[in-house]
Each structure stands twice: as C-alpha cells, then as structure tokens.
Amino acid sequence: MDTTNQLTPLAAGKRIVVKVGSGVLTRKNSLNLDIINAIANQICALHDKGLEVILVSSGAMAAGVTKLGLKKRPSETPKRQAVSAIGQADLIREWEKALEHCGRKVAQILLTRGDLCDRVRYLNARNTINTLLEWKVLPIINENDTVAVKSLQFGDNDNLGAMITLLLGADLMINLTDIGGLYNKDPRVHDDAQLLKEVATMGPEVEAMAGEIAGPLGTGGMGSKISAARKLTSAGIPMIIACGLEKDILVKIAAGDYTGTYFVPKASKTPSRKNWIGLTLQPKGRIIVDKGAQKAVVADGRSLLPSGITRVQDYFEVGDPVEFMNEDGQVLGMGLSNYSASDILKIMGCRTSQIKDRLGFRSYDEVIHRDNLVITAYTDTLT
To answer: What is the number of other CB atoms lying within 10 angstroms of the CB of residue 12?
Structure first.
C-alpha cells in the first residue's frame, strides 16, 4: 500500500509548530539523545529553508525519572510535578546542546492554561514568542507542571501544541508520534490496520477510530491528537501526524513527500480573537437554549437572545466564557456573556424589550453577541 503523501511544499516564511511526544523522545524511561539530535538537525534544515519553527517538547518526566534513578514515573501528583521539574532542566539542556552545532539558540517557555485564558498574559506570551522568532531563537515550550493544578492544566502536549499554534497564527502543526498517523484500527494490535493519508472531515467516526493509545510516559493518546486536529482544522489550520522516528521526517514534510496523516483545514482561517474565545478559554458555566435559538445562532449566524434560553447552569459573571448547548445536551459553542448567571435567570425566555422591566437596566439586547460567539459543534450531527 502506498502511504506517501504528495502535498505542495511549504513556502519560505511559513510558521510551523512541531510537537514531539514522549513516545518519540524517550527510550526505556530515559531521553533518546539520538532522536533529539536527529530532530535538532532537521529543525536547523527547516531554518535554512527560511521556515519559522516553534517546538513543543515532551520528555521532562522521562528525564527526571532517569536522573533520580526511578524504575517508573510516580503516580502521586506532587511527586510527578517534582520529577518533571527536575527533568525539565535536563530536557532543555539536551535540546540546547543538540542545536549548538548549527549556531541556533533556544529559549525555554513554561506555560499553564491559565496563562492563555487570561487575555493580557495571552497577548504577552504571543509577543514574547514573536520576538524570539524575530531574533532567530528556537522557542521550546512545555507545560509548567510544577505550578499547574488540574483546572489549569492543558491535559496533554497535543492540546498545548494546538493552543500554541492558534496563539501564534501558525500555518501548520506537525505532531510527531511513535505511531506515525491515524489508522482505522490500532496498528500495534491489528496487522491489517490501514493508514489514513488524509482526513477531510472531522466527525464522531474519526474520534471513535482514534481510540486511546498512550505510551508509559505519555499522557496523550491518539484521541488527544484527534482533538487537537479538530481544534486546528476548525480554525483553518492544517495538522499532520507523522512518525518522529522516521529519518528526516520534518524535511520530507517540508518537501511535501512523506508518510503520515494530513488533516484538511476549513477554507478560511478564523480570526485570532475568536480562536481564543472558542478554542482556548475554559467555560465558567452553561446556558441551555431551545431549538429556535439553536437555529438562529448555529444556522443563521445570529446573536443569542434571552428569549431562546431555557436554563442556566453554574455561576458566572459578566464577561465570563460560557458554553451554550441544546436541550439534548449537545454543546453548540462558546461565548462571552453580557449578563451574569443570576441576571439571565431573571430574563430567560423574555423579549429584549422586557429586559429593563425585569432587571431595572438593559446593558445589551443580546446575552451573547455574535462577535463574541464561536460555534464548536459538528453541525451535521446536531439534533
């Protein structure tokens, strides 16, 4: 079976996020220095082609496990965070050493999800990374495990890589794994597994196909990679899953001749601010809408008015991000609320002309304005 992709080579000046997983970077609970050096050489080659590269690197846990002489990574959260903190220093040192030979400097950037959910910190992170790229310095990004609590974790570096791609408006994310693409079934179990060269439409069947395939040192299986691809393609950015163990894989991708899975983006890119609202923020609450509001918002592209709201869940304030969903429990999208949860409870179901009578004021006609609203659902599966 021919699994080689034939895509148009990336033009000079393109910006690429390369995410390398633990399954590629580790070997027997330690860093695979041969692979780190090989990938570093390829990044240098991409730089020589005029491409901008941002690296999202796993491997801190493996480096820490090795340095401490542990047989496996600990299960307790404080110990895991401590091991990652110890290993992060070695991880960045090995990348720095690997890139020294071609005269490239590196910068370490550790983030939590809270850094990207706060608009000011989000913009500061973007400005800093853009400056590093202008200076021809390679940004190496990882989650700040030492301080991240569960509510502020990215969950996995696939999700972090997608958010960094959105943050920087990159043109492509390359997700390097030890599997090498999306198969219709687990290739490590089934000899007849078929590699999908291209995924043009994201949907439940693709997510079901992915399953959960995680290595002993990784947190993201194939399911998390599909989730990252869904975010990016919905924003108009392609993603490629390829085998990081394959010789010169990044150079092959840049030339458009490689083995892997290409996720086709929608025709146009979504504005950066809408990506931040819909794909980066975490909801503080939920608004349930009726079928009329679902049609108006999803199909007709209109704002969400109080008349179509039937219920409110959790507590949130004015300006907080909230999910809105239909009465069957399907999440339709995300938006910034013009009213608090307590005020929405008073005006839900009413016409806009009645808002002032119910609240004593009328700041907005819309509960969520369409400029602050993003549809995230698979529209062809909505009931």
So the answer is: 8
